[in-house]
Specification:
The complex is a heterodimer of chains A (300) and B (991). With 300 residues, chain A is mainly beta. Chain A has a single domain (2-21, 28-299), classed as Porin, CATH 2.40.160. Chain A has two helices and 15 strands. Chain A has helices spanning 2-13, 48-51, and strands at residues 83-95, 100-116, 119-135, 139-140, 147-148, 152-162, 166-176, 185-201, 204-219, 226-240, 243-253, 258-269, 272-279, 283-284, 290-299. In chain A, a hairpin with a 4-residue loop joins β11 and β12. Chain B folds into six domains: 121-307, alpha-galactosidase from lactobacil brevis (Beta-galactosidase, Chain A, domain 5); 315-398, Immunoglobulin-like; 410-508, Immunoglobulin-like (Sandwich); 524-793, TIM Barrel (Alpha-Beta Barrel), CATH 3.20.20; 795-896 and 947-991, Sandwich (Immunoglobulin-like); 898-944, no CATH class. In chain B, strands 36, 37, 38, 44, 45, 48, 50, 51, 53, 56 and 57 form an eleven-stranded mixed sheet that branches. Chain B has an eight-stranded antiparallel sheet with strand order 6-7-8-9-19-15-14-12, covered by helices on one side. A five-stranded antiparallel sheet of chain B has the order 5-11-17-16-13, with no helix packed on it. Classes of the chains: A mainly beta (300), B mainly beta (991). Chains A and B meet through β2, β3, β4, β8 and β9 of A and α1 and β18 of B.
Chain lengths: 300, 991
Amino acid sequence: MLRALLVLIPCVALGQPAAGAPAPEAPPAPAAPEVAAPAPAPQVEAPRGCARWKAEGLGEGPIALGYVEADVATGRRACPRSEVGIGGRLSAIIDTPAFYGYLLVDALVYGSVAIDPKTEIFGTLEAVHWSFIAQNGPLKIPLNDSATLGTLTLGATRQFYGSDRYLGAFSMRLLLPTSFAIPNTWLIGAELGHASSWRPRDWLELHGYLGVDFNTALGNGPTLPRVGGLLTAGVQLSPFSFLALVVDATGRLGAKSYFAPSVALRFRFYRLGIELAGTMPLAGTDRHDFIVGGRFTVRL
Amino acid sequence: MKQLLGVLGLVAVSFAISGCSKEGCLTNDPDCHVKPPCPKVKFSCDESAASALTIERITTAAQRPGGWDAIGTKDDVLLKNAFTQAVVAHIGNQTNLDPGGGSLIDLATAGESNDALNQILTVTGVLPDDAALYQTLDIIDERPARVAVEVKGILQNRPDILIYTRYELTPCDRGVRARTEIVNRGTDTQLWMLGDGFWWGNREPLPFAPGVGSGWNHPPFTLGGINDVVRTFPFMSANSHSDQSVSYSAVSCTNPSLEGFHSPTVSFAGLKRTVVPPRGYLTFERFFAVATGKSVAEATDLAMEIRSQVLGEKYVTLTGKVERMGAAKLDSERETMILVSEGSEADGAAKRTPWTTVVPNERGLFTMRVPAGKSYFVEAHSFGQKQIGKDFANVTSDLDLGTFTLPSTARVTFEVKDADTLAGLDAEIFVVPAEDGTNEKFAGTLMGQFTSCSPWLGPPPGASPACNRILVHAGTVTAEVPVGNFYFYAFHGPFWTLSRQTVDLTPTTQSLSFTLRRLPLPLTGSVGADLHVHGAASFDSSIPDLDRVLSFAASDLDVIVATEHDVVYDYSAMVAQLGLSGRMTAVTGVETTGHIPWMRIPNYGFPLVVGHYNFWPLRYDPLKPRNGGPFDEFVEPGVLMDRATELRDPIVAEPLIELNHPWASAEFGRDLGYPRALSLDMRKDLPASDDNTSAGMYVRAKGSTHKNNDHHAQEVMNGSQNDALLQYRAFWFYSLNQGQLRTGTANSDSHSLTDNTVGMPRNLVYAGTQAGASFEINKFNDAIKAGRLLGTNGPIIEATVEGLTGEKTFSLEPFKPKDGAVVKVKVSAAPWVPVKEVRFVVNGEVVKVVPANPAAADPFGSAELVRYEGSVPLSELVSGVTGDAWLTIEAGHPLQLVGDLGGGLPEGDTSPPDGIPDTTDNNSDGKVDTADVDKGAKYGPLKSLAPFPQTDPTFHFNRLTDGYPFAFTNPFVLDRDGVPGFKAPGVKGGR
């Protein structure tokens, strides 16, 4: 089963059948616009705005490069998609005067299923949460002692209104206590938000996200409940069906507050979308020097 | 809406779950208590013993546990049962590395004066901000079950990291149990190494930790390389290596091992390094065992018992016997140490795992516990050398190891008398291998620890005999010495004759008699004073008070200033006990010792401390923190001077302030001298005020009435070896050239019989007062401040310069020399103190060197004391100097050729010269250049002189001090320009 899935994903990305699967009766669909699968449920009217897009495999919505667990507080797109992907995130805090250096690498597995044209469910798992910390001057943690399973988020988005240019959706996300990163403690939380997208042209999207999130700890230690708020606004320019530039600005209030611009390049190769992104806080209490990430997504 | 309700429901459930069964104080509930530690650990005792459990605040000095490291003071908390006494510092009672109280500062067995613990403090790493800063202390009295002290606080400067520790004693505990809880309430991920820092201090208890190739031996490390030396070990033990019998052990109550690192200065033992993201927490439970004992075995046995209870680990008891024909004693580490290691003799030490060491009782019997089911190699050491070893395979049950027969020694009685009065003298015997090439044969160590000595007569930092030295009290002492051909030197200070006998010892009883004579050297009007000495009250010394004061007498000192690290101390009682009050004065002082780096300077990335200062006299008060010494962390020297002034003995208007070892190398990242901490550049003049440079920091007053450079005196000579003399001297010359007229001093900084010979060097202070009952501290201090002081380890310089009103002796008081003035100099020394040359130094530059009569024909005689006498026109010396000048005169051995190739900031390959010598002529090509520098370095090393061969007249002096003769006068301050006052010559020396 796993093998079949591994074979299927690149095949789907290239628009070709997997070995053993029946050959397509027709040549691959043109690059844009593509016909999305699965087919919408007959009782739900397809949102017209979501179709105003340069290419099916090209990523959309706010840059999914966050400062906290998994994809919490990264915003969310308004248009449902079915996709699966892997990604990585590297975040760094280098505070030499304080003798503090922190690198965090997350290997992400994520996916979403558009269960109808207005609704998707999605999830992100930090499959490997690996931190390297050099603190207290010379002390460092042995590398093999700090790789753990990270957190898992599951969520759903539902469009509540829209037009042929403007879309609005509510999103919620649950942070599930799967991580072993915190000794003796597990995190749980939730996020509610509203995603919007305005697409005056198929090469231009203005997107935004407003969300609040909450998390707390389970275990014998303190719960330390924390609430955060996030506002993201940005633009995606897609001059070509294979390339887009995204610029976002994010402000967050919470245990860590920051104002941070993010930049991403999004590429498309058939159904494979690639996103290379980076962000750094310009103001606030967050100490990150930078966060960079990459995502490889196959549109299903 | 249903989805939203679902989310809210989940959140509510999580709240409900997370509200359950919180541990101890992790939630920071104001009424919380840390859980009682180590519930699986149980000791038994009879009912009457169990009823002895108490907890109380210290209100009188008598409550403080006895022992030379006892520093419990008013308001500290004493926990006590029939077996253990422990003191937790009250909040605000700062000592050593503890920023604010709450650390364990005394640990001793009940009813005995054997506290040898400096400090155990909770830390999460090695930086200052990794130490717990406790803010509240609660006493928990739940007798008869338990008593406890609970301290709560934060990590220093990190208010979002909460930390709680509970120290607990139950009725039959042989030690203290502790539990620490720490929570990361911040927003950044932390790396914590939660555990205990053990501040051994050096020359005190040493850490012993089982591990392959370990035991007493631990990999050396620098502050930046600690991560590379972190090891795991089942427990850690330690014991005093002096005449105070106490044994300690630290063992986890939950885990099979501890993680940490060790050195003679500090150990760390705790949990493994753990990444703790926000909201994570750690808990750590451990037991600090204490037992009366002369080795680690006594506490290690307790650790084995605890591991048995906690982990189910089985142990066996090994017993045995040691014999030595004709032995006077068997029951100290000097005579016998048994080391038990897992493995076999064939494995070699590098592959064996040492588990314990034991010292037998007075009958030679010993017993100890080790894990069951292992094979062991048992070796017996005596007088610093391994003598015999045996293999024991697969030890599964208690075992009698049989008898270990050690080689016999000679029992030698030494008699030392005054040749004129025939009275018995307090003296020091130095034992030196007589034949070239036999040093190695007789060399020994305490199983590889402390200094190597040849012969090794006892642990170097401990009581006499120590290393190769034996104290003689009132003319006689008996000691055991390994057989061999040795020189025996009898020493009673630099102003007496030296006597030597050469004896090929056999394993018999022998007597050696020596006579010494006071030499007619020109000492009139002076007192011989060592202004910088340490004893067991310091955290880095374990020489008992009796031996310490006896060593002062053996060196014929008149005045000693007790300058223990961070604690005021008073030797007067011991001086009186030894009957020395009539001729010796002990002054109470302190050496402030910065431990916690905090100070930032330009162009340097690490925080620093301000180094060490001596203050005297201060009022000795054991009911004050640090016995009345000032809190010396986190402040610049000026503030420290203000604080010390407030704590002075009221007999003086202000204490004397001495800047110690101004350019000593940092130890463990802690600078020992303020100028070096600032990386002052001697090539530049000091600013008049703070200009935001390091030099500005040196001259400024920040929140204080004193300026940071308001010390009265600064060390030019520190230590018997003279190994940093040229650097301290360079800094003194710089200070004088800057118009900072500070008295140069000469001190031994002795911490034991071994590291430095006390009184070598010393100060001859021309104070117009005498030691003993009539001693006047104000006259003494005034003379030092005025520069009426000669620093010397043997030569005596008499010098005058003709002034307008007559001949002037050296002092810091400027005077105008008369036209055509002549400098008259006379240098005298004991026959065994070679004086090869006399140097004249003007404004920091040696302007004239004249040879002296280097040595008397008979170094053990009493003739040929005068080595040089002559006069030099002052005009010759100040030729080329415009304006005011200062002149000092030096006598002794020629100085080494040195150069300044680097040392300034920034560090590294581009480190610029800083005006301080840093490199010797290491390839002996007559010049100092990059060819003398160690590979990969920008500059250095600055090597000490090699030991002198027997053919050199300095051989005898060198065997007693590891150094060479040197003396210097304080300056003649020459007001040549006629304008009142001294105009600083500047870095160019007025040339």
